[in-house]
Design brief:
The protein has 573 residues and is of the alpha+beta class. It contains 15 helices and 21 strands. The chain has helices spanning 16-39, 69-75, 101-109, 120-136, 146-158, 160-164, 169-189, 197-212, 220-234, 246-265, 272-287, 306-313, 387-391, 413-419, 451-454, and strands at residues 78-81, 84-87, 324-325, 330-335, 338-343, 363-367, 370-373, 399-401, 408-409, 424-425, 430-437, 440-447, 457-465, 470-478, 490-497, 503-507, 512-516, 522-528, 531-539, 547-558, 562-570. Helix 8 (197-212) packs parallel to helix 10 (246-265).
Length: 573
């Protein structure tokens, strides 16, 4: 029987509290937009200083990794951004038809300047492209969206030596005037940024500008307070982002850590809110890191660049990972080189759930430096056709009932316009209990995502042996209490997606499979209470694009109550 590959398309009705939250969100967005328009008018921009920048006193560090192939492709007339490639055909990239909206946003964000800083020849290319952008003026809407404008400001400031060193007075004044104009414009329009990371990036860009441009120190106190409030709203006490996506932390820290250094370079104390949030976020990344160095693929997490993660973690001391992230609702088990990460929480609030996945009670696992079981993860920008499938429950290492996902899409026009995507709802009640004993760790979880439609609660218990040599699982489906007999049997499937580099050998004589990892480790998987099969899968979260993989699937039918036992154990040499 095929498993569900897409999120259900049924429309969920918003609850009264959700309608109230949506109304509040719409009013807040309208207020911010109106205020941004008023403050952005020529009569009010004086509040943010004169649009003049005579010199830069410091230059931020860009800690993102550069790609030397970018310059070679650009010289050949091709510009690849956001997973799409445009054929320039001897034209300026600002004159070609953009292959996608994401490509256009990245073009005007100029984060790609770092790829052109290698030598004199590529630096001349960078100067020419920045000058071409200024000359065109770019009245287009995309170029002036707050998050795009913020990224451009940070990029230009970070690569100011490349743009301004040895510049003649005319070019110097032209670039500095444009920087000043953009900084004033962002000061007026940042409130219009969409909630979530775009708003944080906009505020960070303003503080970058006030620290780097001479004479703007008097505006810092207000911006620091605004950023502190936004960090408090988005970064949870355990260091996770409110979206529950670990990849968001990587992107934010790539800007936040150099910003901390800018305060120190100006002889100023790093604001307590920025320092504390940075430390919590780095601790959370260590918590979400598997033995192979990757981050858990939950709730929109795709293929994070290992170089960026290593750079970020180098900024803080190596500390042991905690066992639980109570606010982000993830649990970590670690024994004998075996690491298990489990999703023990409901979807994030609706306004942050546009990228969230229906992976409640799913887990990922690594053995030593090899990934073993991984969720299929989020696809990259060039493979968004897989996005719906990646969000489905069947793309995660958990149980799927009736070929449906445990979460439901919320198709609401106003809400989708406000957050930019269709969010998910359900499960509403998710429980977890972690017990640590000398014999091992026992994690017990449950969720009610299938209660309304099937009357069933999914309960899962994971037991990790003290020596890390075995992981036992109990998956049960049943009513909240008492007994239940369904009118007809409901099919279920429990998925265990293997890492793409893992091999699986089917034992034809027994209901079990043997998994062989790249490092030579061998693991035996067996189960009772369901039919065990080895099936094809697709791993979405790979930097090279979707990859073929395998999955172990336990299939059966539930008449009202069912229990499936499974066991993964190390094969000793």
């Amino acid at each position: 029987m095929p498993f569900a590959t897409e999120m259900p398309r049924s429309v969920m009705q918003l609850t009264l509290s959700e309608r109230t939250s949506l109304a509040r969100l719409a009013v807040d967005r309208a207020r911010r937009s109106a205020l941004a328009r008023v403050l952005g008018s020529p009569l009010m921009r004086w509040r943010y200083g004169a649009p003049v920048a005579e010199e830069l006193v410091i230059v931020p560090q860009d800690i993102r990794t550069a790609d030397p192939s970018f310059a070679r492709e650009l010289e050949r007339g091709y510009l690849g951004l956001a997973g799409q490639v445009a054929d320039l055909d001897r034209r300026s990239p600002f004159d070609v038809e953009a292959p996608s909206a994401a490509w256009l946003s990245e073009l005007h964000g100029f984060s790609w300047l770092r790829h052109l800083a290698a030598d004199e020849r590529t630096r001349r290319m960078a100067v020419s492209l920045v000058s071409a952008w200024i000359k065109r003026g770019h009245a287009g809407e995309t170029a002036w969206q707050p998050h795009v404008l913020a990224r451009r400001l940070i990029s230009w400031l970070s690569h100011a030596p490349m743009l301004l060193d040895e510049a003649d007075p005319r070019r110097y004044d032209r670039i500095m005037d444009s920087l000043a104009h953009q900084l004033v414009r962002l000061s007026a329009s940042w409130r219009h940024a969409r909630c979530g990371p775009p708003r944080l990036v906009a505020l960070m860009a303003l503080i970058y500008g006030d620290l780097c441009v001479a004479g703007r120190e008097s505006y810092l106190a207000e911006k620091e307070a605004l950023l502190a409030a936004e960090l408090a709203a988005q970064i949870l006490p355990d260091g996770g982002h409110v979206s529950r996506n670990a990849g968001v932390l990587v992107e934010l820290l790539l800007d936040l850590l150099p910003l901390r250094q800018c305060f120190l370079a100006r002889g100023r104390e790093v604001p307590a809110a920025i320092d504390a949030a940075s430390r919590r976020m780095m601790a959370m990344l260590r918590f979400m890191r598997l033995g192979d160095g990757s981050l858990g693929r939950f709730n929109g997490m795709g293929a994070a660049a290992s170089e960026a993660l290593a750079t970020i973690l180098a900024y803080g001391p190596e500390t042991p990972a905690e066992h639980e992230a109570p606010h982000s609702r993830y649990v970590r088990l670690e024994r004998g080189g075996l690491v298990v990460l489990a999703d023990a929480g409901p979807p994030p609030p609706l306004e942050h759930a546009g990228e969230a996945h229906a992976g409640c009670l799913s887990f990922e696992m690594s053995a030593g430096s090899d990934a073993l079981f991984v969720n299929r993860g989020a696809p990259g920008p060039a493979d968004q056709g897989w996005r719906a499938a990646s969000r489905a429950t069947a793309s995660h290492n958990t149980a799927c009932v009736g070929a449906k996902s445990s979460s439901r899409l919320v198709r609401h026009g106003l809400l989708e316009r406000l957050i930019g995507a269709a969010p998910i709802r359900l499960p509403e009640r998710v429980t977890d209990t972690l017990e640590r004993t000398p014999q091992g760790d026992v994690l017990t979880m449950s969720h009610d995502g299938y209660l309304a439609e099937f009357g069933l609660i999914h309960r899962r218990r994971l037991r990790l042996a003290a020596d890390g040599g075995a992981l036992e699982g109990h998956d049960s489906l049943g009513p909240p209490s008492g007994r239940l007999r369904l009118k007809q049997d409901v099919p279920f499937s429990i998925h265990f997606h293997l890492a793409p580099d893992a091999r699986c050998v089917w034992d034809t004589g027994e209901p079990r499979a043997e998994i062989v990892l790249p490092g030579g480790g061998r693991w035996r998987f067996s189960a009772e209470g369901a039919h065990l099969s080895l099936e094809e899968s697709v791993h979405f979260a790979d930097r090279a694009g979707p990859r073929q993989a395998l999955q172990i699937v336990l299939r059966g039918a539930c008449c009202g109550e069912t229990l499936v036992l499974w066991r993964l154990e190390r094969v000793r040499a």
